[in-house]
Amino acid sequence: MSANASPSGHQPTATYNSAFLKACRREPVPHTPVWFMRQAGRSLPEYLKVREGIGMLESCMRPELVTEITLQPVRRHHVDAAIYFSDIVVPLKAIGIDLDIKPGVGPVVEKPIRSRADLAQLRDLTPEDVSYVTEAIKLLTAELGETPLIGFAGAPFTLASYLVEGGPSRTYENAKAMMYGDPELWADLLDRLAGITSAFLKVQIEAGASAVQLFDSWAGALSPVDYRRSVLPASAKVFRAVESYGVPRIHFGVGTGELLGLMGEAGADVVGVDWRVPLDEAARRVGPGKALQGNLDPTVLFAGTEAVETKTREVLDSATGLEGHIFNLGHGVMPSTDPDALTRLVEYVHTQTAR
After folding, report:
1. Which of 75, 155, 218, 273 is an S-S bond match for 295, by CB 3.0 to 4.6 Å?
2. CA torsion, points 318, 320, 321, 322, in degrees to nearest 10?
């Protein structure tokens, strides 16, 4: 069932007629819906307080803490959707990969995957592996009421990049060396990760998530030819795996202006756009039949209210005539962002787009 159909055999859920889900389905909305990537945490003082002394991965495994952090930006900013507080490496940790998220560095993998024998580290993910996710989402949906919850996962390419490189990379030399030098191993690695990612998203949807977003954070490092040949099949497998649930599927990457059409082709209902490509041009590249999400440059929020409103107006003007538009930043909220600037931004978009 597509995300544009009403739930078959079920009464509409509390969130079904929300502005966010209507925009995902490219239906008329009362106002342009707003949410922010990385809104759950990062810049909020209340987030820093509840996370004090608790590691990132441990935080992701505490349902009550996840619930509180996910709700904080909804309470403060009045955004139109919540984003589940987690990390893209959580499913990898859950299946036993020896990794940690090191402050100031990011995910670091103890034994990178560099050979076929190393693939044995990647077993299937079961719901029992992430029972804390199910518990947290049930707590959240009870609290959120009519506000949709977005589940998310890392896309196979981005997860593969961390696993092969052993941590964050600017050049992806090891991952690309495998992709070019041993395409069969690379394809098998991404296929396994597609299975793990699909299972992780299914857990979130079955627990009550109203939509899901697949983050391919590092796909911008690829050419369109390499993306189509070596990455798109695995991402498409993920989107196909959750299609029957009928929840909107969002696809987002950074620096992916040249890949927007291909990312839509992978099977998303909504294509996220970073700040480098205006939304009207993004719509031309993606083609009809998709909603778009984005795309204010996150650094604009440091420039003062007048500049924020001017740049926001440019985004909204660029979105005129789109089949569906969800306002977001072109990447995640930066840690030193003034939370009040985000609150004002939500109010401004709601006011300017009220119908």
Report:
1. 273
2. 60
